[in-house]
Design goal:
The structure is a single chain. The protein has about 70 residues and is mostly helical. It has one domain. It has two helices and no strands. The radius of gyration is 21 Å and the shape is elongated. The model has no long low-confidence stretch (mean pLDDT about 80).
């Protein structure tokens, strides 16, 4: 394999690399940051939950929409 071909270039103490074949489906493909100076953090969170999240969920290929950093 190509990895084994360059293994000799790595330091002796380096561990063998771990290679995982993936489709990208298990990893985040996009992060979106939102802000609105005319809304409180709570209002913006409510808007994202009510409008943005449902719309993003209908996009073909979108498996999950998660919200991080939202106001409680």
């Amino acid at each position: 394999s190509k990895v084994q071909g360059v293994r000799g270039d790595l330091p002796d103490e380096a561990e063998d690399p771990v290679i995982v074949k993936g489709t990208g489906e298990q990893f985040a493909m996009m992060y979106i940051s939102m802000q609105n100076p005319n809304m409180t953090p709570e209002q913006l969170t409510e808007y994202i939950e009510r409008v943005v999240r449902p719309r993003m969920s209908t996009v073909e290929g979108v498996a999950d929409v998660q919200i991080f950093g939202a106001a409680e």
